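hey so i finally got around to running the thing on that chain from the lab meeting. sorry it took forever, my laptop kept dying and i had to restart like 3 times. anyway pasting the input first so we r on the same page abt which one it is
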Amino acid sequence: MKRSQINDIMAEADDMIRHHGFTLPPFANWSPVEFKARTDAQRIIDARLGWDITDYGQRNYAAQGLFLFTLRNGSLADLQGGRGMVYAEKLLISKQDQLSPCHTHVIKTEDIINRGGATLAVELYGSDDEGNFAEDRGGTVICDGIARDFAPGEVLTFAPGESLTLSPGDWHAFWGDKGDVLIGEVSPVNDDLTDNIFREPFGRFADIDEDVDPTHLLVSDYDRWLN
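ok and heres what got predicted. didnt touch it at all, straight out
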């Protein structure tokens, strides 16, 4: 992805988030220069809080991609110890017909909430006995507190305010149906480096063409820009 495109996506996403009554935290507005100069930002860096924009390495963001902003995130040490900040929260934007490809998680159970906009469409498959993708298996998810069985490949839709809970082994892909969707994600501690298992060999983060300077850093920039 070109850095200029990422800058444009950030500005557009911030407008949509504000339109639906949310405001990003102060560190969302830091420039790269300000971020590097901060002496109090290590917790943000370690937790990988902030902007996250991916085309899954496929170089076609409009067709296959996702905007994310990690608002809060605990540590794996807390999660393993069973106390402390054992939770995470994100905002996502799924554009109309923009696919987030089929994947599951090993650790993370997540609530996916339609926070506003169009309809959220989620395609679901179950797992085999080893947790691998199973084209012929369905399963059960929780939709706003109600258990709902799904057939393999079934697409469930969620209007604003509706949600579903996905557990490890629930293979899922999603997109905005007939418009763009603002999505909330609430989960245990999030580890995007190791806990995304894709059905196909996709990359979790985009490769960046630095055609312009960044407006704000992505979480995937932290290691390179801040160390």
